Amino acid sequence: MDLLLDLITTLSRWCRGNLHDISLAIMATLFVLFGPGINAWVQRSISSFNFFLRTLIFVLVCAVGYGLAIVFLTPWLAQGLGYFNNFTLAPVLLLVFFLIGVLADRS
Length: 107
Hints:
The structure is a single chain. By secondary structure, the protein is an all-alpha fold. It has one domain (about 1-105). The chain is about 85% helix and about 0% strand. It is built from 4 helices and no strands. The chain has helices at about 1-15, 20-45, 50-80, 90-105. Helix 2 (about 20-45) packs parallel to helix 4 (about 90-105). The radius of gyration is 18 Å and the shape is elongated. The model has no long low-confidence stretch (mean pLDDT about 90).
């Protein structure tokens, strides 16, 4: 049991040092998974606008919206994950990546 706890704390300490990169990977993966649905919703919402306005809104949503979301949401996610202690951080991250994998498999 001590060996397992040592492994978990060692993994958690390593993850804590790379938490920003891990959070960026989570955010990017979520945008890849949910981006097509968001884009389809935006296209349905703006379908009645003229071509120029539709194109402008779509570019703003994709380039500016997704870019700002990744830039500003990644530190919040890293900060939120930083609240877990060394006994729970690695299992929580494994669970998060497992759930993302399940979501990716279903879509």
